[in-house]
Write a structure and sequence with these properties.
single chain; 4-stranded antiparallel beta sheet; about 50% helix; Endonuclease I-creI; about 140 residues; globular; alpha+beta
């Protein structure tokens, strides 16, 4: 991530996340993982293809994530790296309004996921993901 993001950009981007962004935390069934579930975390912003240039601007400014065409008329900017999501949310939380509680909970999920070793800890993280998804 670019370390020279000014407060004006951060405030603007937080407002954009509040209105057009989505934070995601999911449990996906997969027998190849320890508890038969994979924990998937990501942030997305979807825009009409006419605003594709703006997603490129965000990607170039933040120096993270990727852009894909998710639909014939839509472009999607996605950040899936747990570290990048964590770093970004830490600096955005002071500027977020609508999604601040969700962002704080996502940070808690990330931190607990990193320390997760037991089935009980997995269950605790799963309950946090369930709580997180009640925001939607």
């Amino acid at each position: 991530m670019s370390h020279n993001l000014n407060s004006e950009f951060l405030a603007y981007f937080a407002g954009f996340i509040d209105s057009h962004g989505s934070l995601h935390a999911k449990l996906i069934k997969s027998s190849s993982y320890k508890w038969n579930y994979k924990i998937v975390l990501y942030l997305t912003i979807v825009q009409n293809k006419s605003k594709h240039w703006f997603l490129i601007y965000l990607q170039n400014t933040l120096k993270m994530g990727y852009i894909k065409h998710s639909h014939p008329h839509l472009s999607e900017y996605t950040i899936k790296s747990k570290k990048e999501i964590k770093d970004l949310l830490i600096i955005l939380i002071p500027y977020l309004i609508i999604k601040k509680p969700q962002a704080k909970l996502l940070l808690e999920i990330i931190e607990k996921k990193d320390l997760m070793k037991t089935t009980q800890e997995f269950i605790e993280v799963s309950k946090l993901i369930e709580k997180f998804n009640e925001y939607k």
